[in-house]
Every structure is written in structure tokens, then in C-alpha cells.
Design a protein that fits this description.
Elements (H helix, E strand, L loop, with lengths): L1 E6 L5 H14 L4 H22 L7 E9 L2 E7 L19 H9 L2 E7 L2 E9 L8
Antiparallel strand pairs: 1-2, 2-3, 3-5, 4-5
Amino acid sequence: MSIFVVQSKLENLKAVRDWLGKVLSGYGFDEKTRFAIVTATNEVVTNVIVHTYKEASFGKVGIEVGVSENLVEVRVFDFRPGYQISLKSSSDPESGFGLRIVRNLMDEFFHFHDERGNNFVLRKHVSTRVRSK
């Protein structure tokens, strides 16, 4: 399992993408699989920064990656126990576009809230066996 934590600033998205790409490469995933997971994770982290923290410099976003033989699970968490958000789209046609991207790229996507804050879980089933790290 690998964990990465960044300040809630949009300029940190490149560091998230680079880190996640390296982690997934280390497990031997092909470019198409890496692209899907990195793109979906980038969308979720962007939403956390923009909507949960409104780019406040005090906030942090965590990304945790777990890999099993045929599943990649990425969990994005926001460290905001008193602030719960919803994955439901509003009536605004522009709203929720990023979440639609996530749902199209990943096999499973859900949210839960616990004592640590919001947790977004992204799962991608892989058909090829990955080498152990």
C-alpha cells in the first residue's frame, strides 16, 4: 500500500498524477490502465480541493493505493470530519461532469464519511496479473 498527502492546492495535481503514475508503473500496469486510474483520481482530487477546501491552504488531501492480483483500489480522503459532501449532481448541466468521467473510467466509485472525513473509493478490475511489489 502506498500513501501520498498534499496540500489542497490545484498546483499540486501534477505531483499527484506523477506519484500515482510511478506507483502504478511499479506494479507493471499498461499505459491504458494507468491513464484511466490517474485521470479518474485527478478528477476526484480536483473536486476535493475545489469543493471541500475551496483551495484553502490549510487543507490536505490524501491518496492511498492498494493493489491485489486483479484489483486496484485508490482512496482519496480529505481530513474534514465535520464536512460531508454529496456525489449527487445538481441541476446545473456543467455540474458533475468530472464525476461522470470517473464513473466511466472506473469499475466502482463510491463515497463514505467517517470520523476522519470524506473518503472516495475508486476501483478498477484488471484482467492481467500484476507482479507483486
